[in-house]
Structure formats: structure tokens, C-alpha cells
């Protein structure tokens, strides 16, 4: 049907070695109107929160290469993939490299460009994963 958008269909999983360094955030998208008298009106856009995971970490050269290769293979933010949040899996920190286990698995995409700063023997990487509906 013209004009319809297909759901994200991931075919790969973020490697386990890269899943452990993310900080989990949750936000409820809303519309907010603020008035001159200081009052505001708020309306929730969705019944479910939208999850995000941020990474700002110093990584080893091997982890940097693995993360960069994974980022490039997904063409940056264009291709979705599965991400296992180690705190949401059952049992905790359980990882499924095939992507079959659904507990703790999220369909995500990169939500930022590649940002890297390098020093002697280590590199700092900043990136964000965004949950897709």
C-alpha cells in the first residue's frame, strides 16, 4: 500500500561485550503548552515510555574497533538491531546472540552520529540507542 511504513525488522544483535556499558533512560513523550501567567498544560503523546541507552565511556582499542565495525555495518542510524539490556533479561545478565529470547530484548537504532576522541591506548566514545516501537 502506498504511503505505509513497515515495522522495523532487525536481523542482528549488538554483541554482548558492547551491551554492558550503557546507561538506561526512560521518557514519556508529551506535548506541553506554557502560558505567560506561568501555567502550563501537558498531554501525554503515548501510553508507553520511550527507552534510550547512552554510552559515554573510555573503551579499549579492541572494543572501539568492534563498536565502530558494528556501527558501520548498520550504516549508522539507518538499520535497526536487537539490544539486550542486561538488567531486564531473565535471569539477569543473560544474553542471546541469536536474538530469539524476547525477555530484555529491545529493537533499537543508533540515535547519534559517531563521536570519538582518542588518547594514548584508550578512546572515549559517545553514542545513544533509541527504542523503536
Q: Tell me, briefly, the overall form.
A: globular
- Topology order in helix (H) and strand (E) letters: HEEEEHEEEE
Which structural class matches the secondary elements? mainly beta
CATH topology annotation: Elongation Factor Tu (Ef-tu), domain 3
Radius of gyration: 18 Å
Please tell me about this protein's structure.
This protein has one domain: Elongation Factor Tu (Ef-tu), domain 3 (Beta Barrel), CATH 2.40.30. It has two helices and eight strands; from the N terminus they run αββββαββββ. The model has no long low-confidence stretch (mean pLDDT 85). 13% of the residues lie in helices and 38% in strands. Strands 1, 4, 5, 6, 7 and 8 form a six-stranded antiparallel β-sheet that branches. The protein has a two-stranded antiparallel ribbon with strand order 2-3. It is mostly beta strands and 133 residues long.
Protein topology:
Elements lengths: L15 H4 L3 E5 L2 E5 L5 E5 L5 E10 L1 H13 L7 E4 L20 E6 L4 E5 L2 E10 L2
Antiparallel strand pairs: 1-4, 2-3, 4-8, 5-6, 6-8, 7-8
Supply the key terms.
133 residues; mainly beta; Elongation Factor Tu (Ef-tu), domain 3; 6-stranded antiparallel β-sheet; two-stranded antiparallel ribbon; 2 helices; 8 strands; globular
Structure at a glance:
The chain has helices at residues 16-19, 61-73; strands at residues 23-27, 30-34, 40-44, 50-59, 81-84, 105-110, 115-119, 122-131. By secondary structure, the protein is mainly beta.
